[in-house]
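Record 1 of the preview.
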Amino acid sequence: MSSRREVVVTGVGVVSPIGIGSDDFWTSLLAGRSGIRPITRFDSSSLPVAFGGEITDFDPKLWVRPRKSLKVMSREIQFGFAAADLAMGDAGITAGALAPERFGVVVGGDMIYADLEDLERTYRRALAGGGFDFSVWSEAIHEDLHPLWLLKHLPNMTASHIAIAHDARGPNNTIVLGDVSGLLAIGEAASVIRRGWADVMLAGGTGCRLHPMALVARGDALLSRRRDDCTRASRPFDLERDGLVNGEGAGMFVLESRDHACRRGARIRGRLLSVASRCESAAGCGELSGSALRLAIRTAIERAGIGPGDIGHVNAHGASTRDMDRVEATAIAAELGAVPVTAPKSVFGHLGAGGGAVELAASILGFDAGLVPATLNYESPDPDCPVAVVHGGPLADRPGTVVAVNLCSTGQAAAAVIAAE
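->
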């Protein structure tokens, strides 16, 4: 690959349950400080699981501009917008410094649920005699809802708001594929640069699995019930794991061609060598075999031109469910052997479409420190999860190359290979 087409990471922006901004995020991660806590944003007392990776110190008024845009931004859109700002600041890019037509945005997103307060008045008007009158609903909905209400719930609006705020007039796209959305967005943005369509791209993902409607819609079958100490609930690959922990957050990266980054004297945080995705059939709620993840990993390292011995660590999906962890661990071991594995979800939970990007940020920030962050709550190895989990403290003296992976219960899998400069 020519240097003109080589893609590098020059900015990292994180909004997470363990910190807003890369410095706070990394400090908490290194200290093993959990972001799992009781839910406080709404009354969760009737929920069977009332804890998660909630962000408690995020004030959207400090980030969103113009202020009136708050009316058409859901919580995950606000997270993505703030993370993009943080990434631009981390990259040292100021307003007006880039050629707008050579600057684009790709964001990974998910379904955005309607806020209860937006629908409550309309719903109550339609209740009559204990029943629900749809004719009243159809009239009330036009009177009670903000005319631009729908814009809060379109996944592509995160990329749109970011592009408007930063005058990014180049390629703009949104990837909506559940838990793999963030890594796929990064891969698509890198592809845009390699094709010569842009010099700089903002890419990442944002998600909120703690929305009350999302909690009801998704159900609680896969959630941890470890109420005694919720900070110990997310325990990827551990023998005593009993389910995942929901969370919220966003991660965004500034990607550039190496030539462009060097011309402006940018600090290079990492080199994006490859991204690959594969899928397998999960029809009829069949159990995943892990074949998609194995193929994604194999393809990614082949495209990167490296072998398993060159890999410093794997940044795992690590959902903390019995079956998903087993399938993932088996696939990683089959393709990469005994490479060390870290699972950031143990610290801040499952962030949905934002998870892949925030997890990847942990590895990229670790390049500077020469450390692989540890997996929290890994205490008892599971024979069904044959991976070497980093635990008890960060791991030093490893090659500066990470394979980051995400997968979905519906069969999609993605793998990205990033190397230190």
